[in-house]
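Reposting from the mailing list since nobody answered there.

I have sequence plus structure tokens for a pair of proteins and want to know whether others read the tokens the same way I do. The first protein:
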Amino acid sequence: MSQEQYEKVKNAQGFIAALDQSGGSTPKALKLYGIPDTEYSGDTQMFDLVHQMRARIITSPVFNGDRILGSILFEMTMDRDIEGKKTAEYLWEVKNVVPFLKVDKGLEDLADSAQVMKPMPGLDDLLERARGLKVFGTKMRSVIKQGDPVGVKAVVDQQFEVARQIIEHEMVPIIEPEIDIHSETKAQAEVLLLAAMTEQLDSLGPNQQVMLKLTPPEIDDFYAPMVAHPNVLRVVALSGGYTRDEADARLARQHGVVASFSRALTQGLTAQQSDEDFNKTLNDSIESIFQASST
């Protein structure tokens, strides 16, 4: 891994822009962007349109490494070009933004009030390809619906098992055990999650580092032990369906935690906006998330 990328992720101010909507979430992302599903047919057209959206964000003059640490890409985005370079290379070489890759293949059906990740065949080959494109790390998401100890343990055990595989490829995994913001046992799930993550982190070797992407907790600074843990490179927060204002407010109360927002980042952007309006809206979004990440 690049030492320059490592130092930026570890020490620089800023946040991670999550631009990794996959097949399941792309129609919703396009609809919010002002492109209803009646305007395209089939996956090829859909993914062409979402790449245009992402490229417009990434090439915007307000999107750069001054306020953005890194960006999470969907596999198909990594393989596509922006202004003649592969997207990951463009991010790092032109924008000074560290590229990450979403590697999970989606979620299994609900069991024990949680959804673990589907199998990831071909992960080793994907990681080697990503490394060749200057990708620094990965991201993979599971979902916890309720404070069920069996479900929480299953999610965390699987996340760390795959994380160890990713670390072997000299990449830094972002572990994302999202807790549903609508869960009536959210606080209970957070207690279980903290304990399960601590046990797994304590079992890592001294040079094995991960990042954690977590739902903002009900008790402020609840994840402070994770921020301080020697095996955690950085703790980032997901927006989880909160509006940007709410996500920013919750994040600002978590000291040492920075944002990794997706929907909250692109809120208000539309295909119909002039470049001037688009860049202003994006700049306001980036600035508010940057400020919330600076506590």
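The second protein, same order (residues first, tokens after):
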Amino acid sequence: MTNREGVRFPTDSTSSTARAILADALRKADPVGSRAVENETSWRRNYLTHFRRAVEAGVGEASAAHSIASEGLHSAHTEMLFDDVPLGEAAASPLQQVLNTQTVQGGAEAETELSLPYRGDRLVGDALRHRLDDWVSRGVVSWSCAEAVLTVQKNPEWLRLEGDTVVVMGAGAEMGPYRALLRWGAEVVALDLPRTDVQHRVREQAEQGAGRAHLPVRIVTDSSADVGADLVRELPSVAHWLDSFDGRLVLGNYCYADGAAHVRVSMAADALAAHLTTQRPDTALAFLATPTDVFAVPAGDVARADAAYRAARVSKVLRQPLRMISGGRLLQRNYPPQADPGICDALVPQQGANYALAKRVQRWRATTARHEGSIVSLNVAPATRTRSVLKNKALAAAYAGAHRFGVEVFDPATSNTLMAALLVHDLRAGVPAQPEPWQDEAIGAAHGGLWTTPYHPRSALGLAAMLGLGGLRS
């Protein structure tokens, strides 16, 4: 195992690096916003405002959005390092380890009908269609999301993704498509850390599935092997290994880590994406966008949220007193009436600036790659009860009370299967290019209701947590 540090920040201050990247991203499209980032003296407190501005500055002018994305990526690859070289040069760094392939063939029969696990049931046929109709009617998912899933349901032969090899970075992640793809009989490359617990789960799911999983392996002795790869530290070896696979690769980023480590792994994945799309132009990219971010949303979602705000009779009794007591911070309207588009700002302070940067880099890559002609699948995923969320008590409580504000929080099995179906749709049916990048991001969104809730998400977060505490204790 290598002792390389791998992808790293240039200094001990992650905040200064994040500020530099965001300032560079805005410099051409929004010079005033760029200077505001550079002059920010309380980054960890006020970063939310600047990440919102980096979305707003790209709305209404596609060239501005493309500039923000490309300049942000260029800065990130210049600022971040791989050992002592710029990240952009990492894939060409000398190899310390050559990875081999271990293949696991699943023993099950491939599923030939799309099914969705939901609250203890497995929805197929009419039951799945009725659930999608219900979600659309309640504003939980967009119609384009439901339509995409219905299209996959009508074309079950797509589920195998015949001819594609899906590289799942973060194969052990709860939100990734790894397990669903294997159930459907797909060809998958499973990338995750060389930890015994992680690799046991990855192998077990491969054996229980119907597809084939290819795992990176290094020979330790003549009779033993070390399975898995650390993308942050072994980026050149992983790039070299993936170059050996035939056919079209679909590079999916489902990695997660806490704090600054999330930026490091996200940047390692981005460097890999840049390398593969250059060396193998037919490579497709896949991402899950977090719902707790800033998005421009269509006028139809704004109208639904506005109608819900006006119809919330029970809340009207408490709304004014609560807003007075809180200095106007509680139960703010989600959007100005008739905004087109509206800006849904669902950034959560508890997740931190590093999380915001890691996820924004993924959106920038999706925007840039799509503009350059690559196939890109980026879909907004619903809020989900993953282990990483539930270990934060404040977020766990807020999720438990979110239904009081029209937001449905999903179980991991529902989310990852739903998002895997959207990935299949995007790879087989394609996603029509939209006039602006924000519209590309809005297609197929399964936002869980955050885009259509009557209240600005952060202004309801504390109340949702208070209402959810009882449910957590019971």
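Reply #1 (J.P.):
I read it the same way you do. The chain has a mean pLDDT of 93.
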